[in-house]
Amino acid sequence: MRPLLTACSVEVYKLRRSFVLWGTLLFILFVITLFLGQPDWPSFFERTAFLYASVFGLLGFGLVTSWTFGREYSDRTLKDLLVLPISRGKIAIAKYVAIIFWCFVMMLISFAYALVIGFAIGLPGFSFAIVQHYLFLILIIGALHLLLSAPLALLACISRGYLVPIGFAFTTLMLALVFGPTAIGTYLPWSVPALHLKENGVASFPLAGISYFLVFLIGLAGFIGTVKWLQNREQR
């Protein structure tokens, strides 16, 4: 357990020092600022939640995941990882832990930022019930996107970089935007976070249990695939 905790702390520190993490956060805060023209708090939070259900989740979390795994190849540091006295499976787990930790930190920071600027311009209709509702909603949407980001780590390992997984993340965003409002969206995992947001209102094509199961299945497959890939690298 101690080697795993050490690896987690190292990966958390490495990601904290990356320009990708803070650049992604600054982009999120900038886009949130652009939507200050909403008439009240519910509309502002609804727009923020939608951004997390689409661009922030698929591209933002996808970029962080792709860079975390892909940089080991682009910076040629993978060979250094392979000689460490720790299993490659634990290294993969540590990287996932760092990604999950910092993505949730980004969500909390951006939500707090939305509260600050909302109060600063005097948005009407504030209530603690609304804050609680949208905070939990954004966290749930973020958790769904973290599952969907797992295959990007595998793609980064297979392609030995981060360009392919980033391209894949952009493609899934386009697919979600095109097919999400249709009946296909129920069975398209990358549409589920945005449709989950719609479930709180009126959804033309409601989600089914299989929708969430597919998201979980993709996340599990991506995680296991990444661990196995790195373990195979250790044996070569």
From TrEMBL:
<dbReference type="Pfam" id="PF12730">
    <property type="entry name" value="ABC2_membrane_4"/>
</dbReference>
<feature type="transmembrane region" description="Helical">
    <location>
        <begin position="210"/>
        <end position="230"/>
    </location>
</feature>
<protein>
    <submittedName>
        <fullName>ABC-2 type transport system permease protein</fullName>
    </submittedName>
</protein>
<feature type="transmembrane region" description="Helical">
    <location>
        <begin position="96"/>
        <end position="121"/>
    </location>
</feature>
<keyword id="KW-0812">Transmembrane</keyword>
<feature type="transmembrane region" description="Helical">
    <location>
        <begin position="162"/>
        <end position="190"/>
    </location>
</feature>
<keyword id="KW-1133">Transmembrane helix</keyword>
<feature type="transmembrane region" description="Helical">
    <location>
        <begin position="19"/>
        <end position="37"/>
    </location>
</feature>
<feature type="transmembrane region" description="Helical">
    <location>
        <begin position="133"/>
        <end position="155"/>
    </location>
</feature>
<feature type="transmembrane region" description="Helical">
    <location>
        <begin position="49"/>
        <end position="69"/>
    </location>
</feature>
<keyword id="KW-0472">Membrane</keyword>
